[in-house]
Amino acid sequence: MTILRPKAQPPATLREAIERDLARGTAALPILPKGAREALRLAKKPDVDMNEIVEVIEGDPALTARLLAVANSAIYNRGFAMTSVRRAVVRLGLQATRDILYQAVYAAVLYDVPSFKARVEATFVHGVVTSRVARRVAQIVGVDEDAAFLSGLLHDVGKGRLYKIANKLGRVDPDDAEVHEAVDVLHTRSSADLCRAWRLAPEIIEACAWHHEPKNSKLAQVVAAADVMARRVEMNPRASDEDVDGVMGMLSIEADFRDAILMYAADATVYAGEPASMPTSGMPPSSDTP
Fold it and tell me: How far apart are CA 143 and CA 134, in angstroms?
């Protein structure tokens, strides 16, 4: 006797369709290029050796370009152009170099989704700004600075993955409100998935997953605050003064720090640069690329 099983019902909304893809676990997970894998390995080492960093960066044109661009930026420039990777690492210091390695990893997995190109690249710029603000906020409230930086950098990294899934499902209108609504709702889950796939620390995964509802995680609260302050100085989407006051109060940060942090966030928008201007070795495939 044949038992007929009921057919699975097709998803009723785009959000449900994307959630079904996310439930597969591997949907649109990027495969890191070799240079990015090495950068991630080094960035995670607390006792990384400068010689090892120099060797890896010199072996990858994208890493070299990013490092030298930052070393010659207005923030670090000392009046002469830097062309040596080793000298650039000395000028920046190991902490800033490690931060740049993480940024290079993020830039390496920017998804090639032409319909949503501007949105995907904006997540990178916003992540860089948020990461620097998160480090500064962490210094004020006594949270681990490196964890705050990395959580701030990656808190929206899953958005590109969601745009790629939406594109695969046939949604190609860059003004599609349903796509953007689904990304807004699901990006915390998607970002946490990516951090988990990269075997980052549990507190990083938690902060990315809960930065919009940071009830019990001080690190997530720091990321939430940095996210709001970064958006306050960015053109779109801008956060309100009330939003800033809310996150300042959440962390019991004195009002005197408000303007100083916002000024720092504004400076960070210059530091962030544009990911599209960085040479890459080609966009990475994803785990379910046809």
Answer: 10
For 228, residues 6+ apart whose C-beta sits below 8 A from its C-beta are 239, 243, 244, 246, 247
Q: How far apart are CA 134 and CA 229, in angstroms?
A: 9
The verdict on whether omega for the bond into residue 174 sits within 30 degrees of 0, i.e. cis, is no
Nearest of 111, 140, 158, 162 to residue 286 by alpha carbon: 111
pLDDT digits (tens, 9 = 90+) for 59-115: 988 889 888 888 887 777 777 788 999 999 998 898 889 888 898 888 888 888 999
Q: Kindly tell me the burial class for residue 276, based on how many C-beta atoms sit within 10 Å of its own C-beta (0-12, 13-18, 19 or more).
A: middle
Model pTM score: 0.84
d(CA 50, CA 46): 12
The tokens describing 266, both together, are 């504004």
- Provide the token pair at 273: 């640069």
Q: Which residues, 6+ apart, have CB-to-CB distance to 66 below 8 Å?
A: 100, 103, 104, 107, 278
Residues whose CB is less than 8 angstroms from the CB of residue 208 and which lie 6 or more positions away in sequence, other chains included:
151, 154, 155, 157, 158, 188, 191, 192, 195, 223
| Residue 21 included in any domain | no
- 75/131 same-domain check: no
Q: Which pair of tokens denotes residue 30?
A: 């990027």
The CATH number of residue 207's host domain is: 1.10.3210.10
